[in-house]
Every structure is written in structure tokens, then in C-alpha cells.
Design goal:
Elements: H1 2-50, H2 56-69, E1 75-80, E2 82-83, H3 87-96, E3 105-107, E4 113-115, E5 121-122, E6 127-129, H4 146-158, E7 162-163, E8 167-168, E9 177-186, H5 195-201, E10 202-211, H6 212-220, E11 229-233, E12 243-246, E13 254-262, E14 265-273, H7 287-302, H8 307-315, E15 320-325, E16 330-333, H9 335-341, H10 345-348, H11 359-365, H12 368-375, E17 384-390, E18 396-408, E19 411-420, H13 422-435, H14 446-463, E20 467-474, H15 477-484, H16 486-502, E21 510-515, E22 518-524, H17 528-544, E23 560-567, H18 575-591, E24 597-601
Parallel strand pairs: 23-24
Antiparallel strand pairs: 1-6, 1-10, 2-5, 3-4, 7-9, 8-9, 9-10, 11-12, 11-14, 13-14, 15-16, 15-19, 17-18, 18-19, 20-22, 20-23, 21-22
Helix pairs in contact: 1-7, 1-13, 15-16
């Protein structure tokens, strides 16, 4: 019973580590999406900096393509600052654009729309994409709502993207938790240095509109494991009105909490999961970012954004961004890439991208970009691949890279988004090692055996070498547990595992717990006679441990029976043949009186 409880605790510890790992991945996905949305708004703002007048069609084309490539956005909007004396000019423009009924409106306490009260200036929703489904928001004066206006003022004075608290979207009939993200646009191309100057030169806001549920599900649905649930609230956890998103279940046993800064708003995240959740790894999390960045750069170039504006966009992302021409020559290298690889931009521009990879990697796999251009093999385009990167100092590290393609003035340009995944790979390796370790004895478990026997089987087939397998069973272990108790039984298994390990000297030898009181050893390249010798050494080592066993039918101390099987030719044969042969030999050793080794050659 105690053995079961200890094993159960070990397993629950593993589940908790695995759960925390998945939470970290999901959290990273959410934070990555925030960065994407930040970049989208900055690029949308650049549209207004690139042109003295952005017309409705230009905004529609630009915004619709962004929404198409980036799910979870309810709408993108342009909210100009309209002084009362200029209101007629905006109304005339709306009429010319085909909206004769345009007027600036506000919402009453009972939910009805009325003409906005007279005030010195208005902030109406003037451009909106898509229009369909968002008609009620068209002309709505953002300044008429205190929650929206508070965020607008903060965004204006701080010159940064700021989100609202939970709001009800005016375009929604049903109650959905919504948020708006405002990014200020100022007159001129230079950012005013102080809040006073920003108030004077404010031109308006570009705006992202989101249903929180749609945003979260768009990010997490493809990657979150089935048993995981999430709640997001701002304020009082006991107040249902303070929740922005909730799928929690009281039956979930594991929980993790964190605070996510959502454009100036602190969101409280509560993750829950089962204590026996599936051990699956997430798909890559920044694939959307790769495609979005590639698309945004393409649109920016097509709209003739200045090099400075594109450079500003690139320099403010957390991921490494490089651009390459069709000859794999690096053309730009952002600060995040400089920090990641240790090169300055001027050191890499004009050189081949292979500079950032180990020489042997380039020689073996070639340049993925060159392969694509020659063969049309799109493995590296629009998807994420894990490869090895090489820093300036020669250090190699794992990276995740995705490449998007677009054209500029007839030339093919490639944008690579790169992320250092050293920490992630380390965590994944630790989790993988934990999943292959027996919780009680600390040696490899049955899952690890299944992996290793297949690996050694294939190696033996390639090299035409023998492969030996030893199955071991402690004699009369049930009687040992009945006599000494399960606590002592667990201690006994630990001593046996340590003793068995001391009998296997080669790094290539494998020792694992096969189940209960059974152990298994894989001996690559070992012929039958030598395998039997090793088995006998193991048996004698166990006897020398002198573990008392008063209930044994064959002596006063613990003994072990061993079945040895060796296969000479694994070609066109199945692993089960070797395992069954070893199991049969073990059965024979027991039938002959135990405390002995029996070997067979197949």
C-alpha cells in the first residue's frame, strides 16, 4: 500500500510538472499574440504616418487583409479627433463615401443610440473593418463612454497602446466581454516628447476591437490539451461581473495562477487541469507570428512605407527578424537578432544566412531557402522548423525559425522570424527524462525500455551485430512483502536496482524496471555466451547484497532468476521474438528451482 502511495505521489509530481509546462506554453502563446496585436496596431498607425490622407478604401484593403491573416479580431477602426468646427467636413466626407446617414452618436443608459450631445470635440468611429456585423459601432463617439475615454486619455498621454477594462461592445446584441486597444496617432512624424505636446498634436486613434472569448479561444484552441481550463478576471474573483473569460470546473485538481499585463490592464489568469492529464506537447506557438509578420511586411512595402517606418516596426519586436534576398543574402538584422546571435547588423548584412548556422549543418542539409528556390520544396516557407543556430562566439543553440515570402518591386524578399528555444528544449528534455524514469528506483522504466529496445534492434540490424536481452525476476518477492511490509519491500527494490546497475559497466548497456519485481537489461553487440556470463555476475551480485529473506523457499537471503535471449540476425524479424524468448528462458529458470540463469539463442 505504501509502495502504491509513494509511486502515486511521484506520478502526481510528474503530472504537476507536466501541467506547469503546458501552462507555460499556453501563457507564452497568449503573450505572443499580444505582441502580434501590438505590432498590428503599430503598422496600422504607420499607414496614417505614410500618407497625409488615408481614404476609406485604403483603410479597408489594409485592415481586411490583416484580419484575414490574424484570427480573434472583431474589428479594426480609425477614430479621428474631430473638433466641433470641423464636424461638417467629416460628415461631407462620409456622404461622399456612400454613408449619407452618418452622424456622431452616443448610447443612453437604457441602451438606445442618440445623436451625440454638443461638445468641443468628438472621437467617432469613422473607418471600421469589417463593416458587416459592426454597423452599430459606425459613428459611435468613443469619448461619450467613461471607460473608453479613460483608456484614450492614458494612451494619448503615454503615447502607447492601452486597453480598456471590460466593456460591452456597442455592436453586440448579446452580452460578451469585450476589450478595446487604443494606439494614438499624432500630427507629424515625430513623437511629441511630453504629455502636453501629445494632447495638442493628437490626430486620433487606431483601434483593435476584441471579444475576449474569441481572442483567447483563437490562440489556445489549436494548442491547449483537452483537460486544461482557464479563467480570466480583473478585480474580484468572487464577482461574476469581473470575469472576462471562464471555463473552470471544480473537479480539476491542478491549478496555476499568474498576472498578465494586457496593454496596461492586469488580467488575473487561473489555469486548471487534471492530475492525470495527457502528456502531449504543444504545436509551435509563434507560427501565427511568422505569417503575420511576413504579411505585414509585404503590405507595408506595397503601400510604399518608408524604410525608416519598416525599420521601426522591425526594431520593436521581441523576436529576431531578418530579411533575405533570393540569394539567401541577409539584408536586415534587427536588435533582437543582434542580441540572440552576438553580431551587429553591419557584420552580417551582405553575407549569406548560413553564417548563422553551424558549418556541418549547412553542409549536411544545405540552405533551405536555396532548396526552395531550386525545387519548390516549401518545408521552410510559412511553417516553423527547429534547427541549430550558431552565435558569433561559436556557441550552438536551438532556434525556431519561420520564413515568409513576399515581393517588392518584382524582387523576392524573405522575412525570417527567429526565437531562441534553449529554455524550452531544456524543459522538454527534463520532462521527457522524467517520463522515462521509474519513480521508486530512479532507473529507467518500461516506457524507456520500449524506446531503447527499438533503437538497439534497428542498430543491430544495420550493423549485423548480435543483441542480447536479460529478463530478471526477484524470487518469492510477494512473500517478502507479506513478511516485511511494503515499506521494506520498496527499500528492497531500490537496493536491487542499485546492485543490478553496478553489474553493467558499458555506457551502451541498458537497465530498467520492467514492472513490479521484474527488471530488464539490454546488451547491444553481446553474443550469447557473454550474455550468460553477465547474467551470472548479476545473480551473484544480488546474493552478495545479503538482503535477508526469511520467507524464501530456497534460502535465507534474496535471490533472483534470469532469462537470457540472444538474437544474431534481426532483419525481417520482430522485437517480440526476442522478448518472448527471454521470458520463456526466465520461466524455465524458475521451473528449475530459481536462483539461476537460463540462456537461449534465436
Amino acid at each position: 500500500m505504501v509502495s502504491f502511495q509513494v509511486t502515486k505521489l511521484r506520478q502526481e509530481e510528474k503530472w504537476k510538472i507536466d501541467f506547469d509546462h503546458h501552462v507555460e506554453k499556453a501563457s507564452l502563446a497568449l503573450r505572443g499574440r499580444l505582441e502580434v496585436n501590438r505590432q498590428i496596431l503599430h503598422l496600422l498607425r504607420s499607414l496614417f504616418y505614410a500618407s497625409k490622407h488615408v481614404d476609406r478604401d485604403e483603410f479597408k484593403i489594409f485592415a481586411s487583409q490583416i484580419i484575414k491573416s490574424n484570427g480573434g479580431i472583431r474589428a479594426l477602426e480609425w477614430v479621428p479627433r474631430v473638433k466641433a468646427e470641423h464636424y461638417f467636413k467629416y460628415k461631407q466626407q462620409a456622404i461622399r463615401d456612400g454613408f449619407p446617414q452618418f452622424e456622431t452618436r452616443e448610447k443612453t443608459a437604457d441602451g438606445n443610440f442618440v445623436t451625440a450631445a454638443s461638445r468641443p470635440e468628438y472621437f467617432p468611429v469613422f473607418y471600421i473593418e469589417p463593416m458587416r456585423g459592426n454597423e452599430k459601432a459606425f459613428g459611435f463617439d468613443m469619448a461619450s463612454d467613461p471607460t473608453r475615454f479613460e483608456s484614450m486619455v492614458t494612451a494619448r498621454d503615454k503615447a502607447e497602446a492601452v486597453a480598456t477594462k471590460k466593456v460591452h461592445l456597442v455592436q453586440d446584441e448579446e452580452e460578451h466581454a469585450g476589450v478595446l486597444i487604443f494606439l494614438p496617432v499624432y500630427e507629424g512624424n515625430n513623437l511629441p516628447k511630453d504629455p502636453g505636446g501629445r494632447r495638442v498634436r493628437l490626430k486620433g486613434f487606431v483601434l483593435g476591437v476584441y471579444r475576449v472569448g474569441d481572442l483567447v479561444e483563437n490562440v489556445l484552441a489549436p494548442i491547449i490539451r483537452p483537460d486544461m481550463e482557464l479563467a480570466i478576471f480583473q478585480g474580484d474573483e468572487d464577482n461574476p461581473e469581473d470575469f472576462l473569460f471562464k471555463t473552470l470546473s471544480p473537479e480539476r485538481k491542478l491549478e496555476s495562477r499568474e498576472v498578465l499585463n494586457f496593454f496596461g490592464q492586469d488580467w488575473q489568469l487561473v489555469w486548471q487541469g487534471d492530475a492525470s492529464g495527457p502528456n502531449q506537447y504543444f504545436p509551435h506557438l509563434i507560427a501565427g507570428m511568422v505569417l503575420v509578420f511576413g504579411f505585414l511586411f509585404a503590405i507595408a512595402f506595397e503601400l510604399n512605407f518608408s524604410r525608416l517606418q519598416v525599420k521601426t516596426l522591425v526594431e520593436n519586436t521581441v523576436d529576431g527578424i531578418i530579411t533575405m534576398d533570393q540569394n539567401s543574402i541577409i539584408r536586415s538584422f534587427n536588435p533582437a537578432a543582434e542580441k540572440m546571435f552576438g553580431y551587429k547588423e553591419e557584420e552580417v548584412v551582405g553575407r549569406k544566412v548560413g553564417l548563422l548556422m553551424p558549418v556541418e549543418f549547412v553542409n549536411r542539409y544545405g540552405d533551405g531557402l536555396e532548396r526552395y528556390l531550386k525545387t519548390g520544396d516549401k518545408r521552410i516557407i510559412g511553417t516553423l522548423v527547429e534547427i541549430i543556430g550558431r552565435k558569433k562566439n561559436g556557441q550552438e543553440f536551438p532556434i525556431e525559425i519561420g520564413v515568409a515570402e513576399f515581393k517588392r518591386m518584382g524582387n523576392r524578399i524573405f522575412t525570417g522570424t527567429i526565437r531562441d528555444i534553449t529554455d524550452r528544449k531544456k524543459l522538454e528534455n527534463e520532462l521527457e527524462a522524467l517520463s522515462q524514469t521509474d519513480g521508486l528506483t530512479g532507473i529507467d522504466n518500461r516506457r524507456s525500455f520500449d524506446i531503447n529496445i527499438e533503437k538497439e534492434w534497428n542498430r543491430a540490424s544495420r550493423n549485423q551485430e548480435p543483441l542480447s536481452l536479460i529478463l530478471m525476476d526477484i524470487d518469492y518477492f510477494k512473500k517478502y512483502n507479506d513478511t516485511y511490509g511494503h515499506v521494506e519491500g520498496d527499500e528492497c527494490l531500490k537496493k536491487v536496482a542499485a546492485g543490478l546497475g553496478s553489474s553493467l559497466n558499458r555506457a551502451s548497456d541498458f537497465l530498467g524496471r520492467y514492472g513490479g519485481e521484474e527488471f530488464v537489461a539490454i546488451l547491444p553487440g553481446i553474443a550469447s555466451e557473454k550474455a550468460l556470463e553477465i547474467a551470472e555476475n548479476i545473480r551473484k551480485t544480488l546474493i552478495n547484497l545479503k538482503i535477508e529473506h526469511a520467507s524464501s523457499d530456497i534460502g535465507d537471503h534474496l535471490t533472483i532468476s534470469l532469462g537470457v535471449a540472444t538474437i544474431i540476425n534481426t532483419k525481417d524479424r520482430k522485437i517480440e521474438v526476442l522478448v518472448k524468448a527471454a521470458d520463456k528462458a526466465l520461466y524455465e529458470a524458475k521451473q528449475k528451482g530459481r536462483n539461476q540463469s537460463v540462456a537461449v539463442l534465436i
